Structure formats: C-alpha cells, structure tokens
Amino acid sequence: MENKKIIIAIDGFSSTGKSTMAKKLAKTVGYAYIDSGAMYRAVTLYCLENGLFNGSELDVAKLEASLNDLSITFGVNEAGGTETYLNGKNVEKEIRQMAVSSKVSIVAAIPAVRRALVLQQQAFGKEKGIVMDGRDIGTTVFPMAEMKVYVNASAETRAQRRFDELRGKGDTTTTYEEVYKNVCERDYIDSHREESPLRQAEDAVVLDNSNMTIEEQDAWLLDLFNRLTK
Ligand code: DC
What we know:
The relative contact order is 0.21. It contains 10 helices and 10 strands. The chain is an alpha/beta fold and about 230 residues long. It binds 2'-deoxycytidine-5'-monophosphate. 2'-deoxycytidine-5'-monophosphate binds next to α2, α5 and α9. 2'-deoxycytidine-5'-monophosphate binds near residues 14, 41, 105 and 186.
C-alpha cells in the first residue's frame, strides 16, 4: 500500500537551514517543495524595482494596488533545484541579495501582502505531498499540517551560516557584523509583527540544529516523516 500523502510545515527564524533541509526532505520523499520566504522576497524585489521604497519607507497603498499585477511562480532548473519567477522572469539570484534581505521584513509585515501570499500557498498544498518552509506555515497557512517542525539555532550560528553563504556566492564586501545585525533585526521584526508573527505551533516538534550535522538532521527528519506516514 502506498504511504499516505501529508503536508510538511517547517518554520523557524531566518538562516536556521530550513530551506536546505526542506528541499532535501522533499527530494528524498518525492514531494513538491515551496519556499514561502522566496515569495515575500519576490514582492520585496518588485517594490525595490518599482520605486515603492523611499529609504525604509514603503508606499503601502501603491503596493496594495499592485498586488494583482504580481505573479510569483516556481520553476525547476537543470540541477533539479527550485527557482523563483516574478512576472515570468527568473529572479532567484536577485531575491537572495542583501538589498532584498534588509527590506523583506517590512514587506512581510503588510497584512494585504500576507493575505495574498497565504492564499497562493494554500492553493499549492491542495493535493498534499508538499514541503513548505517559512514562519507561519504550521500556524496560519496549514494549521492542519500532519508534520510540523520548528527549527531553531543560535543567532551567532545563523549569522555565520549566512555570511559563509554570501562569501560562497562571491559577495566579498558584506561583513559578519552586518549579517549578524540583519539576522537580529529580522528575528525581532518577524516575531513581533502584528500579523502572523513567528511562533511555534503547539503541535510542532522542535529541532535545534546548532550542534547537529546535516546528516544527523536529515536522519532526524526522515525518521519523523516515516513515523507519521506509516
Ligand atoms: O526564509 P527567508 O529568510 O527567505 O524569509 C524572508 C523573509 O520573509 C523573512 O524575513 C520573513 C518573511 N517570511 C514571512 O514573514 N513568512 C513566511 N512564511 C516566510 C517568510
């Protein structure tokens, strides 16, 4: 008999390695993977490209009026990785840059943006068989998800990971201190905003991976998945 299909929600602070583990788990179990953070990042890129930001000030009315003109989709590249498209254009690289990272929490706090993206995320999960990572997946997007994981790691560990990632991508100017500051700022905004703040769902299982190897983490996730789908 085929195992039952479930929804897997992986939430946690930024740079906890959620995306990497979610992607890997999806591949291992043959599920689709959706990076919900990429969707908030794509809206942020749209705001930056269309002059909706004046410094840190966002023209919320203009953004709300533009939401219907925004199409965010996902494609799969030759290596099997998921890439984000904004109005048909591949923006996977742009949305990972610091310019977007430093503004995304502002955009993600706008209720109309969250409403629009949550609806789209729920549509992605209609058929189940999906792994989605973010901040509010187990609480707001899929409160009925069968598997909920809440990932955590210290701010220092997370800043170091993001710093290494930026260096690996050829960014030689951003300092560790800047990344650490950005991580702490986003932690604060993401967990204190009024609309769907980051919090652990009551029925989520906590995974603190500060001192875990990738292999240990993957085995931990797969074991939980196997127990829930038996
Ligand atoms: O996971 P990430 O760092 O790529 O997410 C980018 C930002 O989007 C993050 O600062 C918080 C926000 N976000 C959110 O509010 N809700 C989600 N479900 C996913 C991300």
